[in-house]
Amino acid sequence: MTNDKKEEYPNMLNIKRVMVTGASGKLGGPLCEALLSEGYHVIGADRRLPVGVAGVEEVQLDVADTAAVEEAVSRSDAVIHLASCKEDREAVIKVSAQGTFNLLDAAMRTKTPKRVVLASGDAVNGIYFNEQPVPITEAIPMVAYPGYYAFSKVIEETMFQQYYYQAGVPAVVLRMSWIQAEDDILTHLTVAGDSFGVPVWSELMTDQQRARFASGGDAAVALRHPDGRPMRRHIVAVEDCVQAFLLALKRDGIEGHTFMIAMNDPFDYVDAAAYAANRLGIETLDLVDPVGKDFCVDTTKSRYLLGYRPKHDIYSLIDSAVEFRQVGRSRRPRSGFKG
């Protein structure tokens, strides 16, 4: 048996031209680079920022523009839908409802795409906010947490499912955990600099702690529940998301399926804080979150049907982020909401 996924999972669908919406985002750039390296012709569509990846055919596209979407879809063997509204109220309708409808309807009418793949998120399962007594699978009903982003993903997933059931559109949903790229995980775990993700550390600090870190210094947060238990959550590295999308373009017979995409195991904030603090030479800071709920994502289906094999755990992700900072690499410009 080989570990070379390109040999093990050939391009069964003979896809050559791939359209990527939202191509300038933190997932879009790395995905476009990977698609090019696999030999695909990539049509990078974005409304706000240039894709900035050499070799990509860049198209400035508003997914709410029906005619423009149909033209782009009509010359694409596959469509990957990354464009997102995040927490933009107006974009819920324009991007998530109208844009997703335009893509799926164009795929139905042109019958050109052999695969249409949605980037969804475990926000549809209400992670962090809702109790998750068992590992989250694709079969658990969508009960999203409050907010426009989570709501938009419920809309998009529902549309993908119905276009598959009603019209046979070859739709696939990748439901990803919180994506970590570059040094995101360090930005999240530490108190210095801008806050990244939830919870917001300053909101959990005492006045004395806020004053102390406002004047300089840094610490890695060992987050606990009120009863003292370490908080646990699932995330995923951007490289592993890219792997999942490449597999989704090659695997036959997965139309109509949803796949959970995450690390193999959830991470423990106390262990992660200790490891990050050691790598960065900083202290740890114990904080208590009265709101957050533990959650675990079950990737069994993705491993079995897609051949998904995540490379990163929390420790290798932290190592990669430390290296990113040490070599002084510049962060990739990102469109839209920070997170």
The helix count comes to: 12
> Assembly type of the shown chains?
single chain
Which class of the domain at 5-178 and 236-262 and 296-312 in CATH terms?
Alpha Beta
CATH topology title of the domain at 5-178 and 236-262 and 296-312: Rossmann fold
Report the sheet-strand fraction.
15-25%
Order of SSEs:
HEHEEHEHEHEEHHHEEEHEEHEHH
Average pLDDT, rounded to a whole number, is: 93
Specify the helix fraction band: 25-40%
Overall CATH architecture of the domain at 5-178 and 236-262 and 296-312: 3-Layer(aba) Sandwich
Q: Report the end-to-end length measured between terminal Cα atoms.
A: 38 Å
- Radius of gyration, Cα only, in angstroms? 20 Å
List keywords for this structure.
339 residues; alpha/beta; Rossmann fold; seven-stranded parallel sheet; two-stranded parallel ribbon; 12 helices; 13 strands; 17% strand; disordered N terminus
Please summarize what this structure is.
The protein has 339 residues and is of the alpha/beta class.
How would you describe what is shown here?
Helices cover 37% and strands 17% of the residues. It has 339 residues and is an alpha/beta fold. It has a domain at 5-178 and 236-262 and 296-312: NAD(P)-binding Rossmann-like Domain (Rossmann fold). Helix 2 (28-37) packs across helix 9, helix 4 (89-110) runs parallel beside helix 5 and helix 10 runs parallel beside helix 12. The model is unreliable at 1-8 (pLDDT under 50).
Can you lay out the helices and strands and say which pair or pack?
Elements (H helix, E strand, L loop, with lengths): L4 H4 L8 E5 L6 H10 L3 E6 L10 E4 L5 H8 L4 E4 L7 H22 L4 E7 L26 H20 L3 E6 L1 E3 L3 H6 L11 H4 L2 H8 L4 E6 L7 E2 L1 E3 H11 L9 E4 L5 E2 H12 L2 E6 L11 H7 L7 H13 L13
Helix pairs in contact: 2-9, 3-4, 4-5, 10-12
